[in-house]
Design brief:
single chain, alpha/beta, six-stranded parallel sheet, five-stranded parallel sheet, 26 helices, 15% strand
Length: 900
């Protein structure tokens, strides 16, 4: 073992490490092949590594893998066992997905699962492929997988801002961070573009589109930088974990992190600003720390507030701040730097001090020769404020009173000890009396601290000489040996008081930490049992009042995202809404509306902001203390998570109720429509026979028979809609997908809808040369019929209805629009809901299922349907169908012509 690794690890940490390793041993290993974009060679590198392991005798199974038509990648599959894909049926279509159950049953030593961010088809066990991988790992199966940088949750929006394309399929960063190994597959932008042009990334037509959009050189360079930085962050975490595991206390200069040392002097602000500039030039992280020793703790309140404001400035400039408790400033800084592997320490230039006191830079250099020291020259300090704040004056007066009382008590204790011990002269040896005086010094140091103990020591020596050393009641000394006694007594008293005061300070720090830990534990325990928002509000308010001595108001948003203040709250809703919308703190002690008497802290949960805490502290000074802010942020995070948990409990309950209601409604629809269909069919036939009976009916009876026939047809269509909706919702519809022209379906829909359209003008505007489209003719005819009937129903006689069709990119766009009154204002988005009607209290027949059926059919075909305004001022309904690539038609037969 090297000299840097000889420190013995903590037994508790060693036990925890053993337990962690035992859990890891039972879990499979995850290796992620990570790249900046498609085409860098992730799948190829994964297959190459798998083939090598297979050649060495390992059990390797290819679970799911996409070659994207790349011949070199497909060639690597030869000789590897492949898992057959599973088949899933969704809305009449058969989809192929990764067969998780077969993979678990096969239980290979290693399985390849490509495209970690892939979304599984509806009906799969898990909605995401990374969840399948988690189950494989839990079963003890090793997994190789691939992922691109744009699929990481934390970078998804960043990549979207760079490329203009925001992918919907993402992987949580925790999955990436927990991977046992991450292999970066890197390729320069020029080489990747060359691969794209040569057809090694996409097919030629796809490659041409990609080169004009996502695969621009600037995009690829930025994505490559993101991938390299994210990999470097993970490697840095691995280095830190290894150093902790091996108890390595020396600094490894693998990063350029800076540590700014903030002191009580006015030049501390210059140190912070200089470190921030240096960190920006180096592109490095930086920390700012203040070491609070017992001596610094006794600084006047204005000096301490200046230090806290400097730390606040460092935090605003991007630093991680901390207030450290310790007796030795240099040793504490070195310990912090080593714990966080910080190779550079920035501190102010040393001022003149006593000759026997070594400057901090010298002591740091002596204790840690592996750390670089950067000394910053003193900047021009800011002038002190002319008048301190009222709270500062009050604190200074209270502190002065407490110090005066401590000195008075220490003097009184020495005098009382002298008076009480005077009668013991002649009975008790002077050495024992001196010990009793030292006991008084010790008690004073425990109770009042170092400086009162110094006063008590000096007075005890003087009283010992005056009351007990001959000649008594004078300060004359008859024997020079007593001078040694006085000196030893003074030294022992000073040393005892110093050590006791230091232990007292450490005990106070430990007690404070224990109180903070207990407060967090109690708050988390109380929140864990909260099942309603009101309980979380009350618990949070009480916990903050108890822990921070501050009144708090928890503001939660309504359904529209607007914060609501409880009765009697003094919070400014404008400031609180700003903090909620921007997910940033505002008010007291911040850079946004700092004159506000309240501090507004947003409750940011993993999914969204759940509310705002409005806090009114008794003393504004505590807002500047980093430890207080960190603890308050922890309280806010716990409250936000609790609010989000309650929200999703309510969402789950509502979803369950809706599912049961939907199931019941579909069952009733199916039952009613099925039972009504047979008698309605019979009624339609009888009414038609009645109208055509011989001898012919009289005119009034014939009119009644026609009305009966029309109403029977309408009721039959209504029941058919009910039954069709129930079948679609239950997934029982089987699609007959064929490549066919859309013009034929338009014609059949117009013929079927001839009766409702007889009072309207119908025009078709289909673009010439429309390609073949793959669809179910019966269902698309039903869509067109419903749209035409809807247009005829809600427009006055004589209106014009236009059927349009044209190619729109990779989709075929069909439209039905009219010049009628149009859709009701604000209701276009709700018209496709079941039982939604264009006019709520309308005499027009129907139950509001026609457009709902249209949407279900179009979405099952992979298209979309939307409602909007017509170019002629009426209503417009537009739906799209994917074009795809139709199969080649049969070649014409050659004709053998006779020779002339």
């Amino acid at each position: 073992m090297s000299p840097t690794e000889i420190q013995r690890p903590d037994p508790d940490a060693l036990l925890a490490q053993v337990q962690t390793e035992e859990r890891k041993a039972a879990r499979g290993k995850l290796r992620i092949y990570f790249g900046a974009s498609a085409g860098v060679g992730k799948t190829y590198a994964m297959l190459a590594a798998a083939r090598k392991l297979h050649a060495d005798g390992h059990d390797v199974l290819v679970g799911v893998l996409e070659t994207h038509g790349r011949a070199d990648t497909a060639a690597l599959l030869d000789g590897l066992h492949r898992l057959a894909p599973g088949a899933l049926t969704h809305r009449g279509k058969t989809l192929q997905e990764f067969d998780l159950d077969s993979a678990l049953a096969t239980a290979p030593a290693l399985i390849l699962v490509d495209e970690l961010a892939h979304s599984n088809a509806p009906g799969s066990r898990h909605p995401k492929r990374w969840q399948d991988v988690e189950e494989l790992l839990a079963a003890g199966i090793d997994v190789f997988t691939t992922v691109n940088v744009q699929h990481l949750d934390s970078l998804n929006d960043v990549v979207g801002g760079i490329t203009g394309v925001r992918v919907a399929e993402t992987v949580p960063d925790t999955v990436f961070d927990r991977a046992d190994e991450v292999v970066l597959v890197d390729l320069p932008a020029d080489e990747l573009l060359a691969r794209l042009r040569s057809g090694k990334v996409y097919q030629p037509e796809q490659a041409e589109r990609a080169s004009k959009n996502f695969f621009r050189k600037g995009n690829l360079i930025a994505l490559r930088e993101l991938a390299l930085r994210r990999t470097a962050d993970r490697v840095e975490d691995d280095v830190r974990a290894y150093r902790i595991e091996k108890s390595i206390d020396t600094v490894w200069k693998t990063g350029g992190a800076l540590l700014a040392c903030v002191g009580p002097r006015a030049d501390a602000e210059h140190v912070v600003r200089s470190t921030a500039r240096l960190a920006g030039q180096l592109g490095a992280d930086w920390h700012a720390v203040y070491v609070e020793t017992p001596a610094l703790q006794r600084k006047p309140a204005p000096r301490r507030e200046l230090t806290l404001k400097t730390l606040r400035l460092a935090q605003e400039l991007g630093a991680t701040t901390a207030v450290l408790a310790g007796r030795d400033i240099a040793a504490t800084i070195v310990e912090y730097a080593r714990d966080h592997n910080m190779s550079k320490v920035v501190l102010a230039r040393a001022h003149r001090s006593w000759p026997w006191r070594r400057p901090h830079r010298v002591r740091i250099a002596s204790a840690a020769p592996d750390i670089d020291l950067i000394e910053v020259g003193g900047g021009k300090p800011r002038p002190a404020p002319m008048a301190p704040e009222t709270n500062t004056v009050i604190l200074a007066i209270d502190s002065g009173k407490r110090r005066a009382q401590a000195y008075a008590w220490s003097g009184a204790a020495s005098l009382a000890a002298a008076l009480l011990l005077s009668p013991l002269v002649g009975y008790v040896d002077l050495a024992n009396i001196a010990m009793l005086f030292l006991l008084v010094v010790l008690l004073v140091a425990v109770r009042f601290g170092r400086r009162p103990s110094v006063l008590c020591t000096c007075l005890s020596v003087a009283f010992f000489d005056f009351f007990f050393v001959t000649p008594r009641f004078t300060f004359n000394v008859s024997d020079l040996e007593y001078l040694i006694t006085f000196g030893v007594m003074l030294a022992v008293g000073l040393i005892t008081g110093h050590l006791t005061a230091g232990l007292r300070f450490q005990a106070r720090v430990a007690a404070h930490r224990e109180r903070r830990s207990r407060a967090l534990y109690e708050f988390a325990r109380e929140l864990s049992g909260a099942l309603q928002t009101e309980q979380i509000v009350d618990t949070t308010r009480d916990a903050i009042a108890r822990t921070f001595r501050a009144s708090a108001t928890l503001l939660v948003p309504d359904a529209d995202g607007r914060l609501q203040a409880p009765p009697g709250a003094s919070a400014d809703l404008g400031v609180a809404q700003w903090a909620f919308d921007h997910a940033q703190s505002a008010g007291l002690g911040t850079g946004t509306l700092p004159a506000s008497p309240l501090f507004y802290l947003p409750l940011v949960a993993p999914m969204r902001t759940r509310g705002v805490l409005a806090i009114a502290p008794e003393q504004q000074r505590w807002m500047l203390i980093p430890e207080q802010r960190k603890q308050l942020d922890t309280f806010a995070a716990l409250a936000a998570i609790a609010l989000e948990r309650v929200h999703y409990i309510e969402v789950a309950q509502d979803a369950l109720v809706n599912m049961e209601s939907e199931r019941l409604r579909n069952s009733l629809l199916a039952a009613l429509s099925h039972d009504l269909r047979t008698p309605l069919t019979l009624l339609v036939g009888l009414s038609e026979s009645l109208a055509a009976s011989t001898p012919a009916l009289a005119a009034p009876q014939r009119e009644m028979a026609d009305i009966l026939h029309e109403e029977a047809l309408r009721m039959s269509a209504l029941v058919s809609n009910l039954l069709e909706m129930a079948r679609i919702q239950s997934g029982q519809v089987t699609f007959n997908m064929q490549w066919q022209p859309l013009e034929e379906v338009v014609g059949s829909a117009l013929r079927a809808c001839a009766a409702p359209l007889r009072a309207h003008i119908v025009r078709t505007e289909l673009a010439p040369g429309l390609p073949l489209v793959r669809f179910d003719a019966v269902l698309i005819e039903r869509v067109l019929y419903n749209l035409l009937e809807n247009a005829a129903k809600y427009t006055p006689p004589g209106s014009t209805i236009v059927i349009g069709g044209a190619r729109h990119g990779a989709m075929l766009q069909m439209s039905v629009h009219d010049n009628g009154p149009g859709f009701p204002a604000g209701r276009a988005d709700t018209l496709f809901d079941k039982f939604a009607r264009g006019e709520r209290e309308s005499a027009k027949p129907g139950v509001g299922l026609g457009l709902a059926i249209c949407r279900a059919i179009i979405e099952a075909h992979g298209g979309k349907i939307e409602a909007g305004a017509s170019p002629t001022g009426g209503a417009s309904l537009v739906f799209t169908l994917p074009l795809g690539t139709p199969p080649p038609g049969p070649e014409p037969e050659s004709l053998d012509l006779p020779d002339d």
